[in-house]
Automatic annotation (TrEMBL):
<dbReference type="GO" id="GO:0046872">
    <property type="term" value="F:metal ion binding"/>
</dbReference>
<feature type="domain" description="Cytochrome b5 heme-binding">
    <location>
        <begin position="73"/>
        <end position="159"/>
    </location>
</feature>
<keyword id="KW-0408">Iron</keyword>
<keyword id="KW-0349">Heme</keyword>
<dbReference type="Pfam" id="PF00173">
    <property type="entry name" value="Cyt-b5"/>
</dbReference>
<dbReference type="GO" id="GO:0020037">
    <property type="term" value="F:heme binding"/>
</dbReference>
<comment type="similarity">
    <text>Belongs to the cytochrome b5 family.</text>
</comment>
<dbReference type="InterPro" id="IPR018506">
    <property type="entry name" value="Cyt_B5_heme-BS"/>
</dbReference>
<dbReference type="InterPro" id="IPR036400">
    <property type="entry name" value="Cyt_B5-like_heme/steroid_sf"/>
</dbReference>
<dbReference type="InterPro" id="IPR001199">
    <property type="entry name" value="Cyt_B5-like_heme/steroid-bd"/>
</dbReference>
<keyword id="KW-0479">Metal-binding</keyword>
<protein>
    <submittedName>
        <fullName>Similar to Putative cytochrome b5 B11H24.095 acc. no. Q8X0J4</fullName>
    </submittedName>
</protein>
Length: 185
């Protein structure tokens, strides 16, 4: 058939690679139609997910997840005023908190939070705050801000068994119980 011969003689443009391939090479591909199907797709890298402040109605367990492979870079990017984003994230156990807009209002002062910028501060946080402070000041109140409620500062939680290690070991709480026997703890 005349039109097949004409095709043989031509180089067929490859829409994906942007090069010309002979029909022999092209015929080893699934089909020309298939190649044309994907030619319109974007081949650029997927955009980075962004993490934003979450409403107080979302339980800690249902926050957006950050994987163990993502977390080091995200913390480096959000490690205080001198970091690429200029934002201050802290990690309280497995919850990532963006303290940026709360810093200047913190009753304990902003420096103490800045010391933990981009870092784990689980046990240190619980030394100074009760669960009630978590609910009201970190999660935020159910009452909307416009009606005098408090907004929350959580952005995400660590996925699965991902961990951000604390740089400081937690001192034992029950100092003095040693006399009860070494098996006590
Ligand atoms: C966004 C995160 C945080 C929030 C929302 C927050 C909130 C608060 C609140 C509401 C108080 C007053 C508590 C009271 O009067 O009983 C407080 C005090 C305090 N916070 Fe935080 N805090 C945060 C992070 C931190 C961190 C990371 C540390 C460092 C370990 C810290 C250390 C303190 C200290 C030392 C006080 C003063 C305690 C006192 O006067 O007895 N806070 N914080």
């Amino acid at each position: 058939m005349g039109w097949i011969r004409a095709l043989d003689a031509r180089a067929i443009p490859d829409p994906v690679l942007g090069i010309k391939v002979s029909e022999k090479t092209a015929s080893s591909r699934p089909s020309i139609e298939h190649i044309e199907d994907i030619a319109h797709l974007s081949l650029s890298a997927p955009t980075e997910p962004t993490y934003t402040l979450q409403p107080s109605t979302i339980p800690d367990a249902e926050l957006p997840l950050i994987s163990s492979s993502e977390i080091p870079e995200l913390l480096a990017q959000h490690s205080g005023p001198g970091s690429p984003t200029g934002r201050t994230w802290i990690v309280v156990d497995s919850v990532v908190v963006d303290a940026t807009e709360f810093l200047e209002n913190h009753p304990g002062g902003e420096d103490i939070i800045l010391q933990f910028a981009g870092r784990q501060c689980g046990w240190q946080f619980w030394r100074f705050h009760s669960k009630g402070i978590w609910e009201e000041w970190v999660k935020g109140t159910q009452k909307p801000v416009e009606e005098g409620g408090k907004r929350g500062w959580r952005v995400a939680r660590l996925e699965g068994d991902a961990v951000v290690k604390n740089r400081f070991p937690e001192p034992r709480k029950f100092v003095g119980l040693r006399k009860l026997g070494a098996d006590w703890w």
